[in-house]
Amino acid sequence: MRLPGDIDVKMALAVWWRNATVYRRTWLKNILPNFFEPLLYLVGMGLGLGFYVGEGISGQDYIAFIGPGLLASAAMNGAVFEVTYNLFIKLNFDRLYDAYLCTPAQIQDVAAGELMWAVTRASIYGAGFLIVLAGMGLVGYPILTSPFTLLMPAGVMLIGACFGLIGMWFSTFIRTIDLYSYFYTLFITPLFLFSGIFFPVERFPFGQEIAWCTPLYHGVRLMRGLASGELTPEVGVSVLWLAALSLLLMAIVPGRMRRLVYG
Amino acid sequence: MPPDASSPSPNENPPAVMARSLRRTFGEFVAVDGIDFEIERGECFGFLGPNGAGKTTTMRMIYRASPVDGGRLEVLGLDAASGDFDRQIKAQMGVVAQEDNLDTETTVRENLRVFCRFYGMSTAEANRRCDELLEFAGLVEKSDQRVQALSGGMKRRLMIARGLISRPRIVILDEPSTGLDPRARQNVWDGLARLREDNVTLVLTTHYMDEAERLCDRIAIMDRGRIVACDSPTGLIARCSAPQVIELSLRRGPLPEHAQPLLTRAQRVEHLRDRVLLYVDTPEDLVGDLTKTLPDHPAMVRRASLEDVFLELTGRGLED
Ligand SMILES: Nc1ncnc2c1ncn2[C@@H]1O[C@H](COP(=O)(O)OP(=O)(O)OP(=O)(O)O)[C@@H](O)[C@H]1O
Ligand SMILES: [Mg+2]
């Protein structure tokens, strides 16, 4: 089967399957932190810090305010890790993509397979988070209060795809693996802090305007809308924003990767 | 697109590979400088040449890992220069690249298993194929170990096994036996001989002249991006300036001044680091004189070989 962009699904699945093979060996070790991280944030920030934010934010308890945003950031982290260090090793150290390309696979199939895997990892990570968020409701801290919560996995996948592509795109520019520290400290961490997860972006001058231009803000807005059920037009705008950036990068990334393996 | 829809070759049974004025440049540098060759189906075709001659660059164009900058290139009648038939071409080809590019995060067996997926094999079929190839590569005992646990030669064997997964019609082998011990090399030769019986086309490079002579039906000798000769091994050896070679050892020091007049009696002289080669039609008289005049430089006579042709045609030794 072929997708637009001459992507052969069978080849993309073979690339995906290789990553799943590696992950299968380590998932038991990885899955536990998947539950602890959200739990720690929710207890530490939501209940600890939240105690001093007595009146909550935007009429919500603090823990209910940050929960959906943290889910968005979990999707981001799950996707990004796969397409930074892991991808760099395959691309530059093992030269594994050169080997893939000796089969009938073309570079766009490889890019698609890696993207599918990034979305898979975002989903695994997001699922752990969702279970914890739902569990908080059982112990008296309702966070997921609307039926639209059922759409959250789709939101996780959209955020995962967008960040997977951003990470892949960045990976095509760097020549040494150390440069990922810039990606994480100057891109991922600021997004985490200033995308409205912990406080409204209006807190700083132009906070809203700047955040609107960055992807995690839209992920947070989408998740918050789905969790509360207030599906304002802004939530729709955020979906379109994330989808548009993803489509743009899908058009660019295979060509960028081709320059690194074809020559 | 069906392979024959816009196939440019009118030939019913086109050659495995056909190149005309094939060129590849890196910036200003011309790595492959307008070469012509044709590789018949079922033959074993070798590229020989000094480091940097352009062998790998040529092979990469054939197995579609590199663009073609000029000229024509057809693989099994499909236009390879356009890039439009890369999937069809690669589906019929197996590749053993010069640099190992194994997956260091999976086991030996998984390295093969993963690649079976790219050829759409069923699980049962893939498992059977992996068993066969692990056996062929002599890696059955290592199958559940990580690639890092393999020695250099074992990695090379795994690379070869991986290149054969799809039972390809054409196998490209870029220095397949580099780093192999004699027995492993023998096994690879046997494996390649079996492929030949199945009419598989082999395209290989090697720096081992004995390997080239033994495996190849025809050899193209490359130098600085050009093909300087292309013939069967015996045909190439017949082109050597003389059929006999006297090897003078330099183990105990350089030749003295008074050796010069003797050297001029040879048709051609090749100075290597540890020996001097004298090419002659009839060695007997000269050898007698050499042993008398140069007691410190033992002389040995042998027939001209592929290595001699190589040295003569590429103008510099393998050892420089
Ligand atoms: N990606 C590249 N960029 C620039 N120059 C290159 C590149 N690849 C190869 N070359 C140059 O092209 C020439 C031919 O290289 P190639 O790898 O084809 O040689 P080779 O015949 O395979 O040599 P060896 O026996 O050492 O493997 C060399 O001079 C090399 O430096
Ligand atoms: Mg080479």
From TrEMBL, chain A:
Domain ABC transmembrane type-2: 29-260
Similarity comment: family membership: Belongs to the ABC-2 integral membrane protein family.
Keywords tagged on the record: Cell membrane, Membrane, Transmembrane, Transmembrane helix, Transport
Record keyword Cell membrane present: yes
The name this protein goes by in its record: Transport permease protein
GO molecular function: ABC-type transporter activity
Transmembrane intervals: 35-53, 65-88, 124-144, 150-170, 182-201, 235-253
GO (cellular component) term, any one: ATP-binding cassette (ABC) transporter complex
Membrane protein topology class: Multi-pass membrane protein
Subcellular location: Cell membrane; Membrane
Species this protein is from: Lujinxingia vulgaris
One Pfam family linked to the record: ABC2_membrane
From TrEMBL, chain B:
Listed GO MF terms: ATP binding; ATP hydrolysis activity
Coiled-coil intervals: none
InterPro entries in UniProt: AAA+_ATPase (IPR003593), ABC_transporter-like_ATP-bd (IPR003439), ABC_transporter-like_CS (IPR017871), ABC_transporter_ATP-binding (IPR050763), P-loop_NTPase (IPR027417)
One Pfam family matching this protein: ABC_tran
Location in the cell: Cell membrane
Recorded superkingdom: Bacteria
Keywords: ATP-binding, Cell membrane, Membrane, Nucleotide-binding, Translocase, Transport
Keyword Cytoplasm listed: no
One GO location term (cellular component): plasma membrane
Start and end residues of each ABC transporter domain: 17-249
Similarity section: Belongs to the ABC transporter superfamily.
Name listed for the protein in its UniProt record: ABC transporter ATP-binding protein
Organism: Lujinxingia vulgaris
